[in-house]
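## Example record

The block below lists the input lines for one assembly entry, exactly as stored, with component labels intact.
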Amino acid sequence: MATRTDFGPPDYRQMLPPIITKNYGQWKYHERLQPGLLMHVAESGDALYTIRVGSERLLSTDKVREMCDLAEKYCDGYLRFTSRHNVEFLCSDKARVDPLIAELKAKGWPVGGTGHSITNIVHTQGWIHCHTPATDASAVVKSVMDELYQYFGTMDLPGYCRISLACCLNMCGAVHCSDIAILGMHRMVPKINHDIVRTKCELPNVIAACPTGAIRPDPANKSLTVNPDRCMYCGNCYTMCPGMTVADPIGDGISIWVGGKVSNSRSGPAFSRLVVPFLPNNPPRWPETVEVVKMLVETWAKHARKHERMGEWIERIGWERFFEITGLPFTEQMIDDFTMAPETFRTTAAFKW
Amino acid sequence: MSNNGTPMLDDLEKGPWPSFVTDMKQAAAKKPAVNDLMRQLEASYTEKVGHWKHGGIVGVKGYGGGVIGRYSDSPDRFPGVEHFHTIRVNQPAGWFYNTKSLRALCDVWDKHGSGLTNFHGATGDIILLGTTTDQLQPTFDDLAELGFDLGGSGSAMRTPSCCVGPARCEWACFDSLNVVDTVTRTFQDQLHRPMFPYKFKIKVSGCPNDCVAAIARSDMAIIGTWKGNIAIDQTEVTQCAANGMNIQTEVVDMCPTHCMAWDGSTLKIEDRECNRCMHCINLMPKALRPGNERGASILVGGKAPIVHGAMLGWVVVPFIKLEPPYDNLIELVNKIFEWWDENGKMRERLGELINRQGMGKFLKAVGLKPVPQMIKRPRANPYYFWREGV
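Predicted structure tokens for the full assembly:
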């Protein structure tokens, strides 16, 4: 039998609950009735209730089936997932909402992640399944969310706060525009295995892949050499060539970046900025990382005005004040020295003491 | 489960947030290989380094991507994960499911793989996490039977994804699900057979809130927007105030263009000055609605740091109407592919190529006229070209 190919994903229209098919494109407004519960009202007067639940992203088929059980019991067999690894139960019958929430709570599944809360952390694979990570993903996320748990199920923060994690700067998770980004970092120059480089790698491509021009031919070894003064440990050479190992138990760890966003609301989309250049990998609970993230959330929550996101708060008070309030030490790594560096230098004599 | 030799993993079952370790243990009860996955992860926690070997090319018949080869670097210690490949499965647009399809998917994965999944991966795909080389083709054959195809990987067009859109959002300025579905079906070849300089991501958000972070991570971000006036229901505005919202400080004072006024009973918007940031609409969904002439802005060049630094997408089409069959959009994508494929170096994303060759060249190549909406401010340096006919 010839293999069928290129038939594309299942048609999303088969996946929509009848209330959505009926009111598609005809939604009028929505309300957040309580943390984790949205009500969307259509022009027709129909109301759809969405119950948002945080998930661990790494799901067993058993857990997915448990989700299906609930969707069948309360939602006529329909559910959806969000871009931040939450699952949403879609209820067209108001009478089923409270029993569903009660059953979710009895199971210990977190209901929340709406409005001014800490919603789920977008993250990558980490040590569970990636070949270039500088840290784990799932364990760090679990540890941070355990500590920030109360903020998932409430909506009392000043504004949105999106936390994301990528386990290396390939950033499958595109964390670089998050209120708080947890980013795995390497700190060691690649260890070169000449045998592998010689036999398995396209040398010109590896040289070209280096963003700082740190890699040069090593004719004597028919291999490559790295200028340690120019290497920024991005790991791009390792992606191109398995003979350029950049992972290291002591060198690898976590950096923290703040103040990014993607929405256009009020201020434009913005990159997150470096505020902690290195924290050690300290499995299984990464206490140093958890402590900094919690401090950042709570400091922002205490000082920001209503609707002000992390970056908007910082822009208002100034970065010099941010470092003072948070007590985070300002280090040389925070002064950019890559391609766009001058854009970040202060070009006015107006600043705060 | 106790005494399984993974004390650090066991610790991660404590605490209120759902634990991925519990899922691994559930999977391990059916699939012994997952015990080795757990033991290898425990070793990573002890040794503070990953244990997956570099890359590895595996796949299924007729496809150049969609499967990520993964091999343990210590198969002697963890034989169950000697090969433990990932399959990217193209999700239905908007991540909606009926449970019949989800259950069928779970059955296939229990039959052929580890029983571990991601809903969803950061790429947007359904991730089936871990199987052996000999099970790849049988997995795909069974997936195809269910109507689930593979997603993108490598130097290909990646699986497009979108926000919840008109399925459940009153702010969707076009049908983001239908656009993603159409683009995905149109470019199956580019999605399944890596032939580009590097990856190419298309992400689609129905309004400027950009719930799928299109501007940050996609080479082509399609973000809903509108022309015309924001519709105001003054009664609902008054109701917001009565419910405790301080319209002056929370809405009017926070408007980035200062185009609003509130006298305690009537909200006025000078729509010509509005930049459609969504703040006021976000705060008062019952009272305010996007204008009637709806479409999208297209931004190109967004990406994460590798190789030459992260970039946000740049506006190149301030406004485009998006209606089936989307010929205008498909034509633009084709022109962009053609120029990038012709000029891009290996591992050069579209934004990096535009940066290297100049936005002017890009706009000319794809037939777009320069307009002020494309820039924050004009250049300050005098080093410009003076080309005939430009």
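Chain A touches chain B through 116 residues (CB under 8 Å). The longest helix of chain A spans residues 287-303.
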